[in-house]
Write a structure and sequence with these properties.
The chain is of the alpha+beta class. Among the domains are: 58 residues, Dna Ligase, domain 1; 103 residues, D-amino Acid Aminotransferase, Chain A, domain 1, CATH 3.30.470. It has a five-stranded antiparallel beta sheet. Strands 2-1-3-4 form a four-stranded parallel beta sheet. It is 24% helix and 24% strand.
């Protein structure tokens, strides 16, 4: 009997999938490379392609999967124009989802839908910033890899003000959020979901714990992203329930989703981010994760 998750047959050319990356990671990030073997076993040729490569023939691919275009926010308008030009229906997650998800104002929509979200103050170009009491985080609404993000306290008011003004002068919307103490003890939980080969709906795959990343004020970094301390994790039932609530309010037609949560002041989990554009999916931290992601891609190829 033929395996329904194999694409084509021996007489046909394998399906081609572009795994979109950036110039700093031309051969993909190490974790994403774990996808290549299971896709090859399923008769799918997967190739890393740099998103702003002017020689790339996007029409030659049966599917275009965003993975690590982590420099996109430096040229945000160009990135959105690029993704809007890709062959309709072949890019995942879809272009309209990417436009919505790359600007963290989507958190306001999820909060309006009843999702518990980390409280956020939004500071526009002409707004005045007054440092809040306690510890807090300053970051831009469009960013990736915790770049341009800093942690501040009462003694850091001048540094926080300079950070906010720097972002404002660059025309970037600023977010100010309380620094949740659970970050330093319990850590952040990221729940990974891939589309089910059975019905296309997102299904839980695995989870990881992220340790604290922000040691203090933003001092800049030359690396593509701030390094993370990652370990496997089994989510609590409350975390599972929040992830279900988040995804019920999220866009549909998704290949993957990562729901990042952390305990709030009362211990109940709150949403930090819903990652639908280019999240790390931590395939190395759970048995079968790469195969589940590969099956999701193959099922989408068969459906399309």
């Amino acid at each position: 009997m033929n395996n329904p998750l194999l694409v084509g047959d021996a007489t046909r050319a394998p399906a081609r999938v572009a795994l979109v990356t950036c110039r700093d990671l031309p051969e993909l990030e190490e974790d994403d490379r774990l996808l290549l073997a299971p896709l090859a076993e399923r008769r799918v040729t997967a190739e890393p392609v740099i998103w702003d490569d002017t020689e790339a023939d996007w029409a030659a691919y049966d599917l275009i999967v965003l993975r690590s275009p982590w420099d996109y926010f430096y040229r945000y308008d160009e990135f959105l124009t690029w993704i809007g030009r890709l062959p309709a229906g072949r890019v995942l997650n879809p272009a309209d989802v990417v436009r919505w998800n790359t600007d963290k104002r989507y958190l306001r929509e999820l909060a309006d839908a009843g999702v518990p979200v980390v409280p956020t103050q939004w500071i526009g170009a002409d707004d005045t910033f007054t440092p809040p009491a306690g510890e807090y985080v300053v970051k831009p609404a469009v960013s990736a890899g915790s770049k341009d993000t800093g942690r501040y306290g009462p003694a850091d008011a001048d540094l926080a003000l300079a950070h906010v003004q720097r972002l404002q002068q660059a025309g970037r919307l600023v977010m100010v959020q309380p620094y949740l103490p659970a970050v330093d003890t319990y850590g952040e939980t990221a729940l990974l979901h891939f589309a089910s080969p059975v019905d296309g709906r997102l299904a839980y795959s695995h989870a990881i714990r992220k340790g604290p990343m922000l040691a203090g004020p933003d001092t800049g970094t030359e690396s593509l992203y701030v390094p993370e301390a990652i370990t496997p994790r089994v989510p609590t039932e409350a975390e599972f329930e929040l992830a279900r609530q988040v995804l019920a309010a999220a866009p549909v037609n998704l290949l993957y989703a990562r729901v990042d949560v952390i305990p709030g002041p009362d211990g109940s989990p709150v949403l930090v981010e819903l990652e639908l554009t280019e999240p790390s999916v931590f395939l190395a931290y759970a048995d079968g994760a790469a195969e589940r992601f590969a099956d999701a891609i193959v099922a989408r190829l068969r459906r399309d």
